[in-house]
């Protein structure tokens, strides 16, 4: 099982992948459009492992990606912004870390 965090902005989304021991594996950015969504699916399938994906609730941006991933049978969780902010306040801010 791999864990994938997603940080969404208006034109791109950043992802970070960790294993079950929460060891960082890799990060990558994708365009926030249908091509980027498809590239993300291809990226995830290369690991050949089940994944759980988490992203912060941020309105329609989150829902577009959430719906796309659900249609492709991925396990996706939307996190409340309060808890994401509370966790991120204790870290240095960069997009890969946010993911």
Question: Which labels suit this protein?
Answer:
single chain, 99 residues, alpha/beta, Nucleotidyltransferase, domain 5, five-stranded mixed β-sheet, globular, transposase activity
Q: In total, how many domains does the architecture comprise?
A: 1
The largest sheet, given as strand count, sense and whether it forms a barrel, is: 5 strands, mixed
- Major sheet: order of its strands? 3-2-1-4-5
- The secondary-structure class comes to alpha/beta
Output the number of helix runs. Answer: 4
Total beta strands: 5
Written account of the structure:
With about 100 residues, this protein is of the alpha/beta class. It contains 4 helices and 5 strands, in the order βββαβαβαα. A hairpin with a 3-residue loop joins strand 1 and strand 2 (about 10-20). The chain starts with a strand and ends with a helix.
């Amino acid at each position: 099982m791999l864990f994938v965090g997603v940080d969404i902005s208006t034109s791109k989304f950043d992802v970070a992948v960790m294993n079950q021991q929460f060891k960082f594996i890799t990060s990558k950015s994708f365009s926030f459009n249908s091509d980027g969504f498809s590239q993300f699916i291809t990226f995830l399938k290369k690991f050949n492992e089940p994944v759980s994906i988490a992203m912060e609730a941020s309105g329609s941006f989150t829902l577009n990606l959430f719906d796309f991933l659900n249609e492709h049978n991925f396990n996706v969780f939307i996190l409340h912004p309060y808890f994401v902010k509370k966790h991120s306040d204790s870290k240095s801010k960069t997009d890969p870390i946010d993911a």
